[in-house]
Design brief:
Largest sheet of chain B: 2 strands, antiparallel
Distance between the termini of chain B: 47 Å
Oligomer: heterodimer
Strand content of chain B: under 5%
Number of domains of chain B: 1
Strand content of chain A: 15-25%
Largest interface: A-B, 48 and 54 residues
Structural class of chain B: mainly alpha
Shape of chain B: globular
Distance between the termini of chain A: 54 Å
Strand order of the largest sheet of chain B: 1-2
Order of helices and strands of chain A: HEHEHEHEEEHHEHEHEEEHHEHHEHH
CATH topology of the largest domain in chain A: D-Maltodextrin-Binding Protein, domain 2
CATH architecture of the largest domain in chain A: 3-Layer(aba) Sandwich
Structural class of chain A: alpha/beta
Radius of gyration of chain B: 21 Å
Number of domains of chain A: 2
CATH class of the largest domain in chain A: Alpha Beta
Shape of chain A: globular
């Protein structure tokens, strides 16, 4: 008890002295929380001021961004960290928050890699894959790879995919090792840890990855860390043409909003402290010691700092077309079973 | 330096363990702010964290036995016989038996864990989705039919617990049972649930008897009771060892957690001693349940270290803490890190021994603690619970949830509906739901019929239901 009282007093003291508040939409033990704790520790060194982490979990991580949108962003000393799941929710769920009302301080772009068991028939299936709203880009990519340019996506979804619901990350990893699932996906650090050992045993292979968004061209470039092709390259290799159409556009939309904004810091538009925060973040990513400390704990990501992040948001916005949004919403609602809504206001 | 850090971890873990409804997981979560101090020597961080796990696991028996409030989710089974023992003036004996059983099994299964760590891979791989599903069912049946004579109420409590545990969102992220309250979309938080269900009813009863001392008899601590607790464990070594084996097995399996291990161990103790009464202060009940306690924590390290797949909720937090100091459990780098294994083994095994020594000393004074009228520590515990509950969002919703489950706890106590059954239903609801989904998606009935481990567990389930219904003379703890 004494310990808790001391910790509480320390927290209260820290809050009182804090120069900045960072809103984290999870409990302290959540993935983004741990990431934020690690990055903030380095960021503070270059900022020269304290950043106090304020945890606002709830409503599947939407409570924090909603609070930021409705109230907290008007405080010039308040920053938000968001994650890729917030990006997907923004597209297809009735959330309050709107990225276009904010300015980017920094973003970490993440690639996601898909691996499959050696015996998997990647042309005919069945592909046994763990479900989850965060898995939507992967399953949309797999459906396209198995369908090709002229056939019906829904037939592939219905007859060649086994969408296994109710697995968390740990269960998914074990199920893949055991063979209950024959395909899985991970971020680079987790892929190295959980899938590469299976590949090294000769039981699996890297199937494809999503690539990294080039905000200037709007294309997904190859990831130098992986020899295997991006989804687009693999599709073209298999079917002789580049992927296209509403289903592909929907896939590109959802993967981009998730991966390009995998981890992102935001302030309100016109925040007078933005330049100072951006400058400190720039210093951090150019300081080998800070970079090494961060990469050792969270893996290697690509940073976009300051206005480059705002450009990325504009690029992402350009992916929101009526066809892509409608297809994504319908696929989510009718096939995956999610409670998605068509948000026409995003097209404005 | 290592020893000083170990002692610091033990003291911190014990404090956490003594706080009602706070266990190893809670203790570890609060450590995130301190991890930067270990970046210079991460192995000291490993020692500190593992010592917290070892000591909080042993220490969490105290509040269950003394106050009737589980010190952690996994300590509820200990409370069923431990609390009545305290009421009968045998608090020190109950605690001594709990410490001995927990420590001996922690050392035994902890040694087995750290000595043979790489050889456990196959066991984890044999336990597929159907086997895990059957194990969860076995836990329900144990609590519902074996651990109580009022099995109809108990089954209803499990159903209610499962329903409450499913509040949140379903596998499609669609809100479920939230009644439009967005706060509930992340589910009901464990702390207000446990505190409301167990702590508040006991506090209420204490408040009604304020100015009086508790009803406990023979209140002074005594070395003879400590000796008696040790002898009890020696006498019931089979119950203790069986509990340890069950706990160790459950710890191997990701996602099942300590509550299930303790209840299976407790249920097996009840089933193996058909002529004895439980729930009224039978020391065997304490010994069986506590056998699983530390053993489960020890074996949870196996999937965590081998695959980076946490074997229990505390292990998930531990992984995050280790990551903070540059140790990525489950990665090939750490797999060949002898110093890491040495640090973990040292902290767990030596930490368990030192914790036991301190706990025996504390148990001596336990009798004196029970002498203090509720009125003196009632506000202190309520304040602690309120403070801890408000750590989630800090809003009125946190308090509202605590109030709702306090009322539920009072009603359960009044109408003798098993609160432990409600708790285990709540804790395992998500597992049974998800595993059911996965089993239906991936397996046919013909496939299940060819799985010997699954069939064996299901045979146990059927047998226990039959046994529970036909030999209904067990406990009536509510």
């Amino acid at each position: 008890m004494l310990k808790k009282i001391i910790i509480a007093m320390m927290l209260m003291t820290t809050t009182a002295l804090a120069e900045y508040n960072l809103i984290v939409p999870q409990k302290p033990s959540g993935g983004t929380s741990v990431w934020a704790q690690i990055v903030v520790k380095e960021w503070e060194k270059h900022l020269g001021e304290k950043i106090n982490l304020i945890y606002k979990p709830g409503a599947r991580d939407q409570l924090g961004p909603n609070m930021f949108q409705n109230k907290l962003r008007f405080d010039d000393k308040t920053i938000l960290v968001s994650h890729g799941g917030n990006g997907i929710s923004y597209l297809v769920e009735p959330v309050d928050y709107n990225y276009l009302d904010w300015e980017s301080i920094g973003q970490m772009n993440l690639n996601i890699i898909v691996g499959a068991k050696k015996e998997t028939d990647v042309l005919n299936g069945p592909i046994k894959f763990s479900a989850g709203s965060g898995m939507t880009p992967e399953i949309m990519a797999i459906v396209q790879l198995l369908t090709g340019p002229k056939k019906n996506y829904l037939d592939t979804w219905q007859y060649k995919i086994t969408w296994v619901k109710g697995m968390n990350g740990s269960e998914r990893r074990l199920a893949f090792r055991r063979g209950d699932l024959n395909a899985t996906r991970e971020n680079p650090a987790a892929y190295k840890k959980h899938v590469m050992p299976v590949i090294e045993q000769g039981d699996a292979f890297t199937w494809f990855h999503h690539g990294l968004l080039n905000v200037a061209t709007g294309k997904h470039d190859n990831d130098p860390n992986f020899e295997e092709p991006t989804f687009e390259a693999l599709y073209e290799d298999m079917w002789g043409v580049a992927p296209e159409g509403d289903f592909y556009d929907a896939y590109r939309l959802v993967k981009s909003w998730r991966d390009a904004l995998q981890k992102a810091f935001w302030v309100n538009k016109g925040n007078p402290n933005k330049d100072k925060l951006v400058e400190a973040l720039n210093k951090m990513i150019n300081d080998p010691e800070s970079v090494a400390a961060i990469e050792a704990k969270v893996g290697k990501y690509n940073w976009r700092v300051g206005s480059e992040g705002d450009t990325a948001v504009q690029t992402l916005k350009s992916f929101i077309t009526p066809g892509a949004l409608k297809t994504l919403t319908d696929f989510g609602k009718n096939q995956l079973g999610y409670n998605t809504v068509y948000k026409q206001q995003l097209l404005k | 330096m290592e020893l000083a850090i170990l002692l610091a971890g033990i003291v911190y873990g014990l404090i956490i363990g003594l706080i009602p409804a706070a266990g190893a997981t809670t203790g570890l979560i609060t450590l995130f702010g301190f991890m930067p101090y270990f970046v210079g020597d991460p192995y000291l961080g490993v020692i500190f964290c593992v010592a917290v796990v070892a000591s909080s696991t042993t220490g969490d028996s105290f509040s269950g036995v003394l106050l009737g409030i589980p010190g952690a989710n996994s300590a509820a089974a200990t409370m069923v016989d431990g609390f009545p023992m305290a009421k009968n003036g045998q608090a020190t004996r109950a605690l001594s038996a709990a410490i001995t059983s927990s420590t001996v099994n922690g050392l035994l299964f902890g040694s087995l864990t750290f000595l043979f760590l790489p050889y456990y891979t196959k066991i984890v791989m044999y336990m597929g989705i159907p086997e895990l599903w059957a194990l969860v069912l076995l836990a329900f049946v144990t609590v519902g039919f074996v651990s109580t004579k009022k099995y109809v109420r108990s089954v209803l409590a499990i159903v209610l617990g499962v329903t409450l545990g499913l509040v949140g969102v379903d596998v499609n992220n669609v809100p479920r049972f939230t009644m439009g309250w967005r706060y509930l979309e992340d589910g009901i938080q464990i702390l207000p649930f446990v505190a409301g269900l167990f702590a508040v009813p006991e506090m209420w009863e204490g408040w009604r008897k304020r100015k009086q001392t508790t009803e406990h008899k023979n209140l002074q601590g005594s070395w003879s009771q400590i000796k008696q607790g040790i002898l009890d464990t020696k006498h019931s070594w089979r119950d203790s060892f069986r509990g340890g084996a069950i706990g160790s097995f459950i710890g191997l399996l990701p996602g099942l957690g300590g509550a299930m291990a303790d209840w299976l161990a407790y249920g097996s103790t009840v089933a193996r001693n058909p002529k004895e009464k439980f729930g009224v202060g039978n020391v065997r009940g304490v010994i069986g349940a506590e056998g699983a306690n530390n053993a489960q924590k020890a074996s949870s390290f196996i999937p965590t270290v081998l695959f980076g797949i946490p074997g229990a909720p505390f292990a998930a937090i531990l992984m995050g803490l280790f990551l903070y100091i540059g140790i990525d459990l489950g990665s090939p780098d750490t797999f060949y890190d002898d110093k890491l294994f040495d640090s973990m083994a040292f902290a767990f095994l030596v930490g368990t021994i030192i914790t036991a020594v301190i706990c025996y000393g504390l148990a001596y004074f336990a009798g004196w603690v029970t002498k203090v009228p509720y009125v003196y520590y009632f506000p202190f515990i309520i304040a602690t619970i309120l403070w801890a509950t408000l750590q989630y969002t800090g809003g009125w919703e946190d308090v509202a949830v605590l109030l709702i489950f306090s009322v539920l706890g009072l009603l359960c106590k009044k109408f003798q509906v098993s609160r432990p059954a409600l708790l285990i239903g709540f804790l395992l609801s998500d597992r049974i739901y998800s595993l059911s989904y996965q089993m239906i998606t991936l397996h046919e009935i013909t496939d299940l019929a060819t799985r010997p481990i699954f069939l064996t567990i299901m045979a146990c389930v059927v047998f226990l239901i039959y046994w529970g219904v036909t030999k209904r003379s067990r406990i009536d703890y509510a």
